[in-house]
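Backbone shape codes:
***
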Amino acid sequence: MSAADHHHDEMLYKAWVQVLDWMKEYAAEKGVQFTKESDFPDFIYRMERPYEVPTTIMAVSLSDERGEPFFLASVSPRHAELKHVSFRVPGGHIHYHAHWEEGKGLALEGKLSVTKEKLYSMADRAKVALARA
């Protein structure tokens, strides 16, 4: 892995940790559930190898008061070539990919920076859409 690839991966996983924090804050502020859905497979089966990513969490969800997930987020595993953060609305056709872009940070479809406000907006829209379903 080149130094540039290592830097890209490091920044993507740091951004992922920020997304996790924002989703936890969203859950606390909005009275919804934050759930860890899965850890990285290489963390689970790592045996004695050191773990180099800043979190073990690979996928999370936000769920309404009925326990129905309305917003899912996940990050690519370390072995993936083109790593990204994915945001999905269960049962819908809404699926965003965010990649690390130098100078922009985590960017949706390479265009819009993922900020706390943007994440909250996406989660709010997903929650409203699920409530109508």
Notes: DSSP finds three helices and seven strands in the chain. The CA atoms of residues 18 and 133 lie 30 Å apart. Helices lie at 3-30, 41-44, 116-132.
